[in-house]
Amino acid sequence: MSARKVHPAPSRLLLLAVVVLVGLNLRPFLTGIGPLASRIQEATGLDYRAMSLFTLVPMVLMGVCVLAGRWVERVAGARAAIIAALLVLCLASALRLVVENGYALIVTAAFCGIGVAIVQAVFPGIIKAHFPRQVAVMMGLYSAMLMGGGALGAQASPLVADLTGSWHAGLAWIAAPAFLAALLSAFTLPRGRSVRAGALRTGLLLRRPRTWLLMACFGLVNGGYSSIVAWLAPYYQTLGWTSAASGTLLAAMATSQAAAALAMPALAARRQDRRPWIILALGLQIVGFAGIAFSPNLAPIGWSVLVGAGLGGAFALSMVVALDHLENPADAGALSALMQGGGFLLAGLSPWIVAVLRDHSGSFATGWLMHLGCAALVTVLALRFVPHGYARSMNVSVGGDPEVARS
């Protein structure tokens, strides 16, 4: 009988580096578009509704393909899924350097969305498996890096475009850090499956009303993010701001997202009940969206920071709450993937809806007020996330073992 090969456990420091670098790569392909929107429109002839597809298409695919990410993980393992997804993101970003047609550029955004979807489906389970006692803090770090990558994309894209004289380069630079993330993941993540198999299948999770509640809350919150990413910079450009200045505004928003995504889960980790912090995050969004809609020039940085902090905190806490519901990392990862899948399908529609509202009203303000209403609705829905009811809502036993329905 041959001895089974044992792979050494990865260094926790290297795992932290993977969390940081992978997270940083998941948003620049989206946030780099807004500051360069006027240049892209001038070169390609795309109107506002077509420009919304740069956010709508990848976010819808991030929702649809998140389930494919779980299938890839089961077939090939978490490590292979992450590496392959990052390489897809790298290649799609690099193609933006040579693609001229506007709709072909949207296709590159679609492939970026597919790569990111697989990472987002698999990575929370990896975090729960390797950091089981620090889930809230590590999900906060992952979310902070994700939002920080958004800030980096908003700031770096117009800067690279100005330095090179090419807006294509301003979109394609993300290929380099994506390739580095793939290399580090290949070196660090253990081969094979990193989490033990779960008992809850997708069909069972979809029969839980709580799964749909998580989807709805995640989608309504991230709809605000997708609209801000798509339209905050163009909105302020219509008010006379330059692309670089509007990019700085978007970067400030994303930086505050990163700070809140890191801080709020860490503060919320002191108690099992995350609701007070969720409500705080949603309140910040409400104030920020109101300011952007009614008095955009009064305190543009302040409004953007408030919206960003609210969005970042709500995103990270949503991920934590999903993982809180189930003990097994595979089951918790599956629930997180479904929440993201359904949520991103809903969130992806928001930029297009805002574009339609702008065309009919002549102003982006109606879109910002729509998201103010969404944040208020989620505030009410989030009151149902009572920790002692998690097991009952997912129909699992007190010990954490799922009661698997008979087929």
Describe this structure in words.
With about 400 residues, the protein is mainly α. It is built from 20 helices and no strands. It has helices at about 10-25, 30, 35-45, 50, 55-65, 65-75, 80-95, 100-130, 135-165, 165-170, 175-190, 200-205, 210-240, 245-270, 275-295, 300-325, 330-350, 350-360, 365-380, 390-395. Helix 9 packs antiparallel against helix 14 (about 245-270), helix 14 packs parallel to helix 16 and helix 18 packs across helix 19. It is globular, with a radius of gyration of 20 Å.
> How many strands?
0
Which consecutive residue ranges, at least 5 long each, have pLDDT under 50? 1-7, 194-199, 397-407
> Mind describing the biggest β-sheet?
none
Determine the mean pLDDT: 82
Order of helices and strands: HHHHHHHHHHHHHHHHHHHH
Distance between the termini: 36 Å
Rg from alpha-carbon coordinates: 20 Å
Helix share of residues?
A: over 70%
The general outline is globular
**Count of individual helical segments:** 20
Residue share in β-strands: under 5%
Structural class given helices, strands, pairing?
mainly alpha
Topology record:
Elements: H1 12-24, H2 28-31, H3 37-44, H4 48-51, H5 53-64, H6 66-76, H7 78-95, H8 102-130, H9 135-164, H10 167-172, H11 175-188, H12 202-206, H13 209-238, H14 243-268, H15 275-294, H16 300-324, H17 329-348, H18 350-361, H19 365-381, H20 390-394
Helix pairs in contact: 1-9, 1-11, 5-8, 5-13, 5-17, 6-7, 6-8, 6-17, 7-8, 7-11, 8-17, 9-14, 9-16, 13-14, 13-16, 13-17, 13-18, 13-19, 14-16, 15-16, 15-19, 16-17, 18-19
